[in-house]
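Record format v2
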Amino acid sequence: MKEHKMEYVKLIDTTLCTACRGCQVACKQWNENPASKTQNHGSYQNPQDLEWNTWTLIRFQEYTDTDGNFKWLFRKDGCMHCTDAACVRACPSGALHHTDYGVVAHNREICIGCKACTSACPFDIPRYNKTTEKIYKCDLCYDRLKNGQPAACVKACITGAITMGEKETMIKKAYDRVEKLGGKAVVYGDKFVGGTHVMYILSEPPAVYDKLPVKPSVPMSVILWKNLFKPFTLIGMGAIAGAAALHYLIKGPHEVHEKKEGEE
Amino acid sequence: MSNHSAEMIKVTDGIERIAHWILAATCLFCLLTGLGFMFHSWSGIPNMLGGYYAALWMHIFSGLAFAASLIYGFFMWKKDCAFEADDAKWILNGGGYLWPTTNLPPVYKYNAGQKAFFWCIVAFGALIVLTGLVMWNADSFAHVVARWAFTLHAMSAMVIGSFFVVHFYLGTIGNPGTVSAMFTGKCSKAWCQTHCPRWLEEKEKKVA
């Protein structure tokens, strides 16, 4: 039996985020991910999307709310570390797995680059690298957690927008904060895919945010694949083999009958 | 020959048997490696082949060979496997395999069950190859397409794997005297009279 350690939750309070992108830099630095050559798209959002070497990214979004107020929304995107993780369900080699902290880590040594996870993830997180033929994503700095250190992004955050701690404590903290904020502020993360180990405090309804699913779930295709077709491949073959054996024992093999000369 | 039942009749030619065995070998190899990817408890299969990465590439190349032999087999067997009116009657009588029946329509080369197996392999084989190609290049497709490709690939494997067991049983111990059709290519005259009487009749007429 696996030793049960504390389950962590990383809470991202978007209302405190100034989009300094210190977390983005700290993530690159700690995980030794090279920088990409990027282009100016008229936004501070850079690079434009998550990449094999960019595991977290501040999304800059210009938004006018229902009262006509202009807002600049910042959201730190990255792996949500689902409890019921579609990527873990889909992974054939066992490279994607849950750690004792509840977060989803990735053993790149045994990843075969089959890309089953990239399309299974409801948050569009894992990224494939054509050169190494491997998948890359945030593992919530598993190596740091093991040594009693917070993830690099948490450590780097100067405004206290990113904090980390024991799961129940953090969920309570999130709801207390939302209550204090009032208005449209909501907690995002604890109500789906078994609860995510990365949660948001959002100042606007989730539907407002770019690339943030309102009701993320393990895709139906993954459930059919893993819970129906997978077992029934063996059950089907086994049942038919059993039926054939019974047929052989009860009805017997189908012997050929000789046709006598002149017989019709 | 005086003893007619001992007379052996050529029922398949060399190219048919080669195509059959390439199709069978690649299909079974893909099935076994595929089960290795599906079930963590079957990791022995990929590990025996040098690990998951090696097994994945062997699975892909075996799949490509399967696709090639499938296309060849399709054009070779589609005429003999075209359904005809009597096939429904054959199916409704359980092919004579399940309960006693006296009104089985005489079969030409392949009976309705064999035809159904052929078309099942053609249809789900095509689906498993196409979805396999999508999976192989999943990063070039929309997520929703790639996602369902994995699912339909597994579904096709389930259908092909299950029907394969039927095929294996009826081609070997379920029908004594059949298996030689895929080794020596010859079956006894009595076998032909039982399994493909109309074909035999036509063949004998041609000779005469």
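Residues 67 and 178 of chain B are 26 Å apart (CA to CA).
Residues 143-171 of chain B form the longest helix (29 residues).
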